[in-house]
Amino acid sequence: MMEETMTINRRSFLASSIAALAAPALTRTAFAADDGWPRRPLTILTPFDVGGSADRMARGFAQYMPKYLGKPVQVVDRAGAGGMIGTTWFMHQPADGYTVMLTPATPFIPVNILVTNAPYKLSDMTFVNAQWKDDTVLLVPKDRPWKTAKELIDAIKASPGKISTGVDFGSVGHITTMALLDALGLKPEAIRIVTFDGAGAMRTALAGGQIDFNIGQVEGADFIKDFIRPLALFLDHRRPDYDVPPINEVLADYHTSVPIIPGSVRSFVYRAEFKAQHPDDYAKFVAAYRATMADDGFKKFLADNRMGNDWVGEEETTRIMQVSFDTLAKYKDLIKPS
Fold this sequence. Notes:
Blueprint: H1 2-35, E1 42-46, H2 53-64, H3 66-69, E2 73-77, H4 84-91, E3 99-104, H5 105-114, E4 125-133, E5 136-141, H6 149-158, E6 164-168, H7 172-183, E7 192-196, H8 199-207, E8 214-217, E9 228-233, H9 247-251, E10 265-271, H10 272-277, H11 279-294, H12 296-304, H13 313-329
Parallel strand pairs: 1-2, 1-3, 6-7
Antiparallel strand pairs: 3-10, 4-10, 5-8, 5-9
Helix pairs in contact: 2-12, 5-13
């Protein structure tokens, strides 16, 4: 009887051990079958240079999103032609969700379509969320003599072709610069225009005094605030944290005004086919995205870098894109490719 009991116990032990060893494998198999996408790392494509706002934001997501996505995230920068080179490359990637673009979707995508004949249209894309929007500001290096926007404008008028500015082709700053010259009755040749392929390099040039002024983004310029002086905001109201007037208050002395064009809006963008063909996988990305935005570490990263953390969703972001497209269509003739 004792021998029989020991045999049964050994059999029970072996059966239990085999079941225990098999369980993790069965669990992993069941999890993989249930989990599906993503099965490999994701790539965030930014169509601008390293160091720009989209690149810095993407690297924050690459650090914090894997926790919620379940796979690593890498960042690739493909700059050129005001974002069109990288965006065109992105639109040729498989619509499987493994490549997502993070970009200042407006104004660059509308400008690429309207001005530089990009081989895509708004309806080819899904705009996930307008997470971060910047205001536009007129800036000069601190060592320049102009203390007000009027002083700078008068200096441009007095010495045509002498004063330089930097533009990131197709940006709100570029369009606004041309609109300002047009409102003042000045031709583009009234200033020396230096074109940069990305806001990061342009801000570095401004901080180093290599250009005389720039119309750029408020939050983006915060990193060089010790080296620059704001002169005017391109808003229809004042900001409590900026002791400078709205530009159209300044232009009242010249009996003119400029259109207030909405600032850059950063958004994740997918090819429209991804959501249409793989709605469940798209929903997983959105869920991981929203969880990342709620992560305390990521929120601190955004706050430290003066980046927005808004959730307006796909429908509202698509509306913003269309409004921007319609607005920029009115001013497309003010800019042209370099």
